[in-house]
Amino acid sequence: MSSRPAILLISADGALADALGEAMRGDADFALLHHAGGLEASLAASTLARAAVVAVEVDAARRDHLFALQSLMMQCVGQPVVVLVEACSDAVQRWFFQIGVRDLLRKPVAGADVLGACRRLLAGALDPPSDYAEVTSFIPAAGGVGNTTLAIEAAMQILGARPNANSVALVDLDLHSDACADFLDLEPRLDFTEIGENGERLDQQLLEAMTTRHASGLALVAAPSVAGQLRELQSAAILRLLDVVAGHFQNVVIDMPRMWHPWTDGILIGSDRTFIVTDMTVPGLRFARRIADQVNARLGLKTSARVIVNRYERRFLGAGLRRGDVASALDGIFAGEIANNYQLVREAIDQGVPLGTVKPGNNISTGMKRILFECAQDERRAS
């Protein structure tokens, strides 16, 4: 077996493989692996493990190719990926980069161009485009842990730091409730019937018409729920929605549902940071730990999922959990705690206003601001 770093070409195009092989002839720097079955054929884990960089041909008009690429990206934790595509929309191109693709080449492409892109990737010369939204996702470890409250508060904190017309969008993907709209006393306007089964009719103009603006400037993207009706949407529609939102706003905060859907993995992979929200109970900490460990092990997230403990109560004496117990249970994934202030939350919900409107500088707002700041610092140190 060659000790040289290998370029893995995933393509059913034999001519492309020959062209890349010709470009690499006499090249002492790389070896070539060719998966001739393309994205349709099963790829052995041992083959992927040998690759230093992956070049994959994708037909952007085929949904099975897009889903197969998403699955491949989950497996390419250490290998940079370049996509070879004949034609694709701007929306699909943005989605490629959101799921972690590092470079994109338009077909027909010369073998030398593929080789050059792979060289740049291995040299670390390419980064994803910087003009896409930063995406922060909140997932509840259990029902009633305050996930929506914290997602709204995070959006408000980000908006306060970057106040402009298209600064922050809050996307409610808990499709079986109107929680975000209810908490902010806004009308949910997103109509999945109107945007099409796969989101094919959604563009920025239609998105703006279906977005509700809060007095603070926060944009809410939420669909009305239907009592007694479960809604399950095509992954393509959800991913298309997030793609258009991310292309229109600088920051996106997502209120995720507790139930796992076929599109959940794709959203987490495209998120810059993921918070799992739980409460200060032993079962809550265990649920959150389990979710975080499984997500971090299974998905190639941009940054590891971390846990926020909501409704935290400081205890010095007597029975019950203390901060040391919480930190120990969540060792390595503890993002921080949010104080228990039920009266403030209830008053804000009843009035349909953000927490800071009821009481500026409250302990929930300051706690969320601290968590976001510390996570941003950690991300800068890691980069």
Describe the 3D structure:
The structure is a single chain. This protein is an alpha/beta fold and 383 residues long. It has two domains: 6-122, Response regulator (Rossmann fold, 3-Layer(aba) Sandwich); 134-382, P-loop containing nucleotide triphosphate hydrolases (Rossmann fold, 3-Layer(aba) Sandwich), CATH 3.40.50. It has helices at 14-23, 45-50, 63-75, 90-98, 111-122, 147-161, 179-184, 192-195, 204-209, 235-248, 264-270, 282-298, 323-329, 342-351, 355-358, 363-382, and strands at residues 6-10, 31-35, 51-58, 81-85, 103-106, 134-140, 168-172, 212-213, 219-221, 251-255, 273-279, 306-312, 334-339. The strands form two sheets. An eight-stranded mixed sheet has the order 8-9-7-10-6-11-12-13, sandwiched between helices. Helix 13 links the parallel strand 12 and strand 13 (334-339). The longest helix is centred in the C-terminal third of the chain and has 20 residues, at 363-382.
Properties at a glance:
8-stranded mixed sheet, 5-stranded parallel sheet, 42% helix, Rossmann fold, globular, alpha/beta, 18% strand, 13 strands, 383 residues
